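A student in our group prepared the protein record below, which I am reviewing. Thanks in advance; the entry in question is below.
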Amino acid sequence: MTRTITPADPGLLTRAQALAQGITDRQLRESSEYRRVIHGVYCSSAIEATHVLRCHAAALVLPTPAIITGRSAATLYGVQLARAHDRVEVLVSGQKYMNRRFGLRCWSVRSWDFERVEWGRIHLATIERTMLDLLARNPLRSAVAAGDALIHAGLINQETVYAFLARRHDHGIVRARRAAALLDGRAESLPESELRVVLVQAGFRPTPQVEIRDGYGFVARVDLALEEAKIALEYDGAWHADPAQHALDQERLRRIRACGWHVIVVTAERLYQRLPDLLAEVQAAFTARR
């Protein structure tokens, strides 16, 4: 008969703990009662899969000096950058093969005591070190978007980021500084940040969260604006299929246009799959309205 996890258990158990309770490897692999969280750590299948749970699982098997960082650390700080089944991002030292374990994304790099705080039996990167690893170890667009999210949440500001990156020689520091130069915490979503970076790379100067007003007062706040050409770009998260909301969106759009603005609605497909077409439309509108 398959053993179940006792109620006193916090929800996670290592393989060694399972074997000590009489649960076999075959039961862990094949029973519907258990689910592997990361390499060597399991939980009841009834427990909701979250990235925080995965971080706690990592803390059970990682070497004590290990430091949770990047998207995982941001999620533990309350900024949901990691999805439930994303690998836990960790700094390790002298453990170059740790990355082969299921559920972990590890970098064997040097870190300093002031860059970490105790978290369970391992460590959590400070928000400054978390920002460094986000900027240094991700593609530019997603790195800036993640950094913007930390700033928008009030966890750090740009001046602190610049000061922390100054005079460092870490692997990836040039990439981190390039991303840091593009940080702007006004964006209210990751795609908005990525759209802003795309526009900057294309030579535009977008301003986030611009308020549009007419003679009667406030009309709308748009995600991004090319103010000199009065072009507003709205990511599709602000538009809805619900008929009542759709009517409100159309009225909002009418009022923005009545103020002399040209509106471009950017969908996820256009941003991530048809970017050249999107940039061509922006350029054409920009040229026509200059």
The mean pLDDT is 91. Residues 240 and 247 are 9 Å apart (CA to CA). The chain has twelve helices and twelve strands. The chain has three domains: 12-47, 62-180, 190-289.
